[in-house]
């Protein structure tokens, strides 16, 4: 670990002394994204029409593969920390699983929709994508698009306070190897070929393993992750398949640090899409997708001196099926219509329990030495979880018009209707006006409404930690945004003022019941607002710097960060070397937890970066560093007794990539 840290610092110091060499060829300059490319980058998820960052009718952040590599991160969720209005930290369930903070809201229920290639990852038992898919390797990613704010007008539930769409690579032939501190090693292989003009194939496989960092609580945070993806394109038909499996044992699970904690999750996705029509005016597609999610987890609930510890957790399986037809049509007057209909079925198929205490006769969890199971056992037909086996049926329709009112003014008008059978119905409108004052200045006014349907864990959970509430209503938010976009040949900047009206928010609350610690409730209505700033300055081909700053005007919900910022600088030091440095700054957090304990974390900064060396036309070597100085810090989680979850220390790794 010391050797890697010294190597990282030494490499950055040495690289900074290398003289600048201009006019590197495009083939050799694999690191930088030209500023013209940045200004013209295409974003599709925010409007279902092809737009740039200046014309898109949403507040957007987009990261290319080259930009992501420069950050030095390894998991897609970590990119959130460089997005205005968003953060990703650890929490109590499971501690190593990323938790989303979005626009002053930190709730563990899936208020950010995560998609891979436009297909949702969030599922119906816990809501948030990262419980079932906590690790998405950077190596397989081509681009990440973020909507900051409402997205339900196009994507329905969970597209509440934001959307993250991960676009994976499909045209690479490459092998990547990695070694790092804390016993880390891994490999990624990517392959694509064309058999004819009509037929092509791609495949990716990525494996990552690490022993984990040692913590004062006597635990580590090991990781083992496998990612597989493949696809075939044949004429108008596209077939896709994906599998992901992640293990996160030990560390923190259900508010208890223990070497006995266990957590494994996996996802299987298959999809088919057919293009019926594709010409200058009309495009019509139909698709079907099926996803299966599995989770097998157990966390420390109580530790005893005289009897074995009590561990408990879910052994659950959910499935998602979706039929969808989409069309886009351009009228003679240049108006553009994007529309679609959708039927989705989300089902909790299995609702078992993993426990260290169980009575086979009564089929109950009983904490008594007579019922100790000599370890953790899995009981699939667990009566108390029977109500979790629920099916959500959703019928949806959406439409949006892009109206070029004049050369300077473009209007977007759209809405989506979702009918969730026996739960709720939601109408989600969106309106946007994009006005180009001159080639440098663009002003946008945007309004949107979004919602999040409660999940089975909130509705029907029944264990020693939480008990569900079948009377829950969907959360909703109304968002108004004023956006100023500025761009020149060297500078791009954005300023966003937003105002949210939050209604029927579902939050976890202590319960007086002796059977569980917490329950769920539509506990409050509130408002919040803030300003998000970001800018990129590329003074030359060799140097660029990007900064973000977020300031909320009200105290965040559940003690998220009220102010935070990031800074990323990249130097192309020659035609073979690049060094990138980044800084994450988070303001102080001070709050009393539900147990009455007082949590306080002073403001802190985390430094990271990367050094890349292009060995030849086909291979490169890269050194990545996160929290390079090993800053010790905690993040707040309301369900911890003292409110504190330990943050990660230094993460150093060496990567080799060979293109073939």
Description:
The strands form 6 sheets. The chain has a 22-stranded antiparallel barrel. It has a 5-stranded mixed sheet with strand order 1-6-7-4-5. The chain has a two-stranded antiparallel sheet with strand order 2-3. Mean pLDDT is 89; it is low at 1-36. By secondary structure, it is mainly beta. The protein is built from 6 helices and 37 strands. 6% of the residues lie in helices and 55% in strands. The two termini are 31 Å apart.
Blueprint (SSEs and pairs):
Layout: H1 2-15, H2 35-40, E1 60-64, H3 65-71, E2 86-90, E3 98-102, E4 112-116, E5 119-120, H4 129-132, E6 141-148, H5 152-155, E7 162-168, E8 174-180, E9 184-194, E10 199-210, E11 223-234, E12 237-247, E13 252-253, E14 256-257, E15 262-278, E16 282-302, E17 310-330, E18 336-357, E19 372-379, E20 391-404, E21 409-420, E22 424-436, E23 441-452, H6 456-460, E24 466-467, E25 475-487, E26 491-510, E27 518-538, E28 543-552, E29 563-572, E30 577-586, E31 589-592, E32 598-601, E33 604-616, E34 619-626, E35 634-636, E36 644-646, E37 651-659
Parallel strand pairs: 4-7, 24-27
Antiparallel strand pairs: 1-6, 2-3, 4-5, 6-7, 8-9, 8-37, 9-10, 10-11, 11-12, 12-15, 13-14, 15-16, 16-17, 17-18, 18-19, 18-20, 20-21, 21-22, 22-23, 23-25, 25-26, 26-27, 27-28, 28-29, 29-30, 30-33, 31-32, 33-34, 34-37, 35-36
Low-confidence stretches: 1-36
Give the DSSP E fraction (strand runs of 2 or more residues).
over 45%
Distance between the termini: 31 Å
Number of DSSP strand runs: 37
Number of helices: 6
How can the largest sheet be summarized? Answer: 22 strands, antiparallel, barrel
Tell me which oligomeric state these chains represent: single chain
Radius of gyration computed on alpha carbons: 25 Å
Query: What share of residues is helical?
Result: under 10%
What's the pLDDT, averaged over the residues? 89
Structural class: mainly beta
Apparent shape: globular
